[in-house]
Amino acid sequence: MSSSSSLHGPNTAPMSASSNGNPNSSENNDIVSDHHHVSVVIVGAGPSGIATSALLNSHSVPNLVFEREDCCASLWKKRSYDRLNLHLAKGYCSLPLMPHSFRTSTFMSKYDFIAYLDEYVSRFNVKPRYCRHVDSAVCDEDEEIWKVKVTGPDQYEYYSSDFLVVATGENNQAIIPADLPGLESFTGKVVHACDYKNGESFKDKQVLVIGCGNSGMEISNDLADNGAHASLVIRSQMHVLSKEMVAIGMLLLDYLPVKIVDKFVSFLAKFRYQDLSSYGIHRPDQGPFLFKALTGKRPVIDRGTINKIRSKQIKVFPGIVRINSNSVEFNNGARQSFDAILLATGYKSVAHKWLKDYKYLLNDDGKPKGNYPNHWKGEKGVYCVA
Ligand SMILES: Cc1cc2nc3c(=O)[nH]c(=O)nc-3n(C[C@H](O)[C@H](O)[C@H](O)COP(=O)(O)OP(=O)(O)OC[C@H]3O[C@@H](n4cnc5c(N)ncnc54)[C@H](O)[C@@H]3O)c2cc1C
């Protein structure tokens, strides 16, 4: 990577037209900062963005990190529920240069993970420029640079860089499914999982959780623990594993082919959970790790939800036919009234909206063009980290 002569060190802040020497001060609204060049622009200060900046800092490569929120790791700090624990063992969730302490529990709470990330930014001198939304990044092929437009707290800012790193993650924007007829007529509360913190305010309420990935399963469990009457829509096949089974499987994958690991882990899952089809939970034909590789769908990690489904504390419904006022009709003919709907329907990346020349890195759906393990490197100096 070439280094920029206009910067004096890593994470150097730009001097805006309004700055008076202080890059964060401004006297006017709607003014535009001077153009500023840096070696590497990193978009997003989640775990991927801060890790990239830390590594660049360790090699004295000047870089700027832009983050639309007012903090790093905003997904973890602002858009996740209180009882969230890491789904993966700590060895798979550490950032470069800083392994987790041996005192940290294997499946740490989100609060421990956040404390780890905060320590990380301070230890490696990562200084994201907060409250800066990257509106566009365009490749200037003549000058061989990326031109980046940023909306700051009170002005537009313009930058150019030799390299651009997309670290905006796969969880950019909440998905509200289009195939829920009548959702707009629902008279109760509709909440997306990204805004759910805990089940306190749902006590004694009938709540329908739509989506049976890890968030949907864990939120149903949390609702039931908080005295809500939780129901869960499960319409696709899925693997249910314990966190220990996932940890064993991931360890074995380092040594054995996926087919053998899948057989072993599926055997453990069948032994532990038996046949769940009478509860509306159907296993795919492929094993959990191959299924993830083929479809992108992760196994669901059970943290107590299955027991509650068995004991009917959590009801399972198949697909939804229509929603009408507060009543929901399901495709097995059942009908029930609900006070709230919780959409655990996932997220999507919208990087291809602001990365104008996304063709060098991404497909039209915002996903990397290259297949793993070559998904991270695009053309013309654009990279993605996740
Ligand atoms: C409920 C839940 C549980 C999870 N559990 C685990 C787990 O146990 N283990 C694990 O490894 N992963 C887990 N994940 C996946 C998680 O997404 C990643 O671990 C991690 O947060 C991804 O980091 P990232 O930096 O790539 O993206 P993110 O953490 O999503 O960070 C992207 C950042 O980019 C910012 N941004 C986006 N667009 C712009 C823009 N245009 N301009 C400026 N800034 C922008 C966002 O505000 C955000 O701060 C979980 C995810 C969820 C939702």
From TrEMBL:
<feature type="region of interest" description="Disordered">
    <location>
        <begin position="1"/>
        <end position="30"/>
    </location>
</feature>
<keyword id="KW-0073">Auxin biosynthesis</keyword>
<dbReference type="GO" id="GO:0050661">
    <property type="term" value="F:NADP binding"/>
</dbReference>
<keyword id="KW-0503">Monooxygenase</keyword>
<keyword id="KW-0560">Oxidoreductase</keyword>
<dbReference type="Pfam" id="PF00743">
    <property type="entry name" value="FMO-like"/>
</dbReference>
<dbReference type="GO" id="GO:0103075">
    <property type="term" value="F:indole-3-pyruvate monooxygenase activity"/>
</dbReference>
<comment type="similarity">
    <text>Belongs to the FMO family.</text>
</comment>
<protein>
    <recommendedName>
        <fullName>Flavin-containing monooxygenase</fullName>
        <ecNumber>1.-.-.-</ecNumber>
    </recommendedName>
</protein>
<dbReference type="GO" id="GO:0004499">
    <property type="term" value="F:N,N-dimethylaniline monooxygenase activity"/>
</dbReference>
<keyword id="KW-0285">Flavoprotein</keyword>
<dbReference type="InterPro" id="IPR000960">
    <property type="entry name" value="Flavin_mOase"/>
</dbReference>
<keyword id="KW-0274">FAD</keyword>
<dbReference type="GO" id="GO:0050660">
    <property type="term" value="F:flavin adenine dinucleotide binding"/>
</dbReference>
<dbReference type="InterPro" id="IPR050982">
    <property type="entry name" value="Auxin_biosynth/cation_transpt"/>
</dbReference>
<dbReference type="GO" id="GO:0009851">
    <property type="term" value="P:auxin biosynthetic process"/>
</dbReference>
<feature type="compositionally biased region" description="Polar residues">
    <location>
        <begin position="1"/>
        <end position="15"/>
    </location>
</feature>
<comment type="pathway">
    <text>Plant hormone metabolism; auxin biosynthesis.</text>
</comment>
<dbReference type="InterPro" id="IPR020946">
    <property type="entry name" value="Flavin_mOase-like"/>
</dbReference>
<feature type="compositionally biased region" description="Low complexity">
    <location>
        <begin position="16"/>
        <end position="30"/>
    </location>
</feature>
<keyword id="KW-0521">NADP</keyword>
<dbReference type="InterPro" id="IPR036188">
    <property type="entry name" value="FAD/NAD-bd_sf"/>
</dbReference>
